[in-house]
Amino acid sequence: MSLLRRVIRKAETIKDQYFPLKEFDKSTLPWIDQENPDIAGFLKNHPPRYDVPYDMADKLRNWQQNGYVVLENIIPEAMIDKFWGDFRELVSHPEKYDLSVRIDLEEFKPNQERNIKEFPKDALQGKYVKINDFHNSSVAGKKLMTHPYIVSFLEAIFNEKVVVMQSLVFMYGSQQPSHQDFPWVTAKIPSHLAAAWIALEDIKIDSGPLYYYIGSHKMPKFNFGSGILFKPDSTKTPLEFADYLDKTSADLKLPKETLLIKKGDVLIWHAALAHGGSMITNLDQTRKSFVCHYSTEKALPFHRNFPTQVPVKQDYNGVYIYNNPNLPQSEDVLK
Questions:
Q1: N or C: which end of the chain has fewer CB within 10 A?
Q2: Which domain of life is it from (predicted)?
Q3: Is there a contact between 248 and 219 (Cβ–Cβ < 8 Å)?
Q4: Nearest 5°: phi and psi at 334?
């Protein structure tokens, strides 16, 4: 990276430290988040690159009003099965691979995030396991997260070049308290963020399904004591954040909806949609999920963990995916 870009990056860091964000910057909001967006006019000037099987105008209206959309039955079963086959290979033979895994169990404290080789094999197929950025290893994962029907919607809401930020794979429900994504999954422009949950099986009510508060993407932002982004010097905790989201949603009378989608359906949600994982009531019931976070090249022109390096990138259906500089030996090992 050039000296000028390093200086600019350092200046941005100092600005974040001394002038923390209290709200998304209105000047950089995606067009759909600005006041009175002209959806019909936008689509007239920016028709989707792909012939999508859903009503784009209707989906954009739902996004603007509710903070999420469900794209029904858009992923072929064969694509999902190929990806899940890669996952089964990974957890069956972890000694062959290098990637980051997090297991939120007491027995693995204080280091709950490690190389996959450092966890017992049986633990990798249990609860509280999150496989980080498996798409870097799996070509099937790259193809799945950049399916043309997903890409079309992301391009419509951002009207910018789309990039992949990160991904998570898990077998069981997260049971995670209410949260919004942007305080943790943060680009240079925090509002340039969307997430997709690709259902890898039909979701059952006893699996700890995902829930969200409809319209919560418009609620006032929580202040961690360090602004709206969670940082090492934040004085408020994630549990206080969850309590704020639950109580504010109740005060605003925002409906809480539990989502039971089918294999091949995709939920895409706004950076500020309050959501979480319900309690698992059947300990044997899985919730096989591939969760992907996306931003724009304008907001994230680098790998999120290497802001001073020029990224090595791959193009899938017009979306940039950054290779992981930490694990170059693992890129595309599963084809």
A1: C
A2: Bacteria
A3: yes
A4: -105, 115
pLDDT given at position 20: 83
Q: Which helix (H) or strand (E) holds 293?
A: strand 289-296
pTM: 0.93
Decide if pLDDT at 138 tops 80. Answer: yes
Beta carbons within 10 angstroms of residue 147's beta carbon = 21
- Residues 28/189, Cβ–Cβ less than 8 Å: yes
Q: Which two tokens stand for residue 54?
A: 């859903």
Q: Amino acid identity, residue 268? A: I
pLDDT tens, position by position, 139-170: 999 999 999 999 999 999 999 999 999 999 99
The two tokens of residue 67 are: 């903070």
What confidence score (pLDDT) does residue 6 get?
59
Please, which residues bridge with residue 291 across strands? 168, 197
Mind listing the pLDDT tens digit for each residue in 63-106? 999 999 999 999 999 999 999 999 999 999 999 999 999 999 99
First to last CA, the chain: 31
**What token pair was written down for 52?**
């999508």
Please give the pLDDT value at position 53.
Answer: 98
Q: Which two tokens stand for residue 140?
A: 């099937």
Q: Which residues contact 145 (CB under 8 A, 6 or more apart)?
A: 135, 164, 167, 196, 198, 290, 292, 321
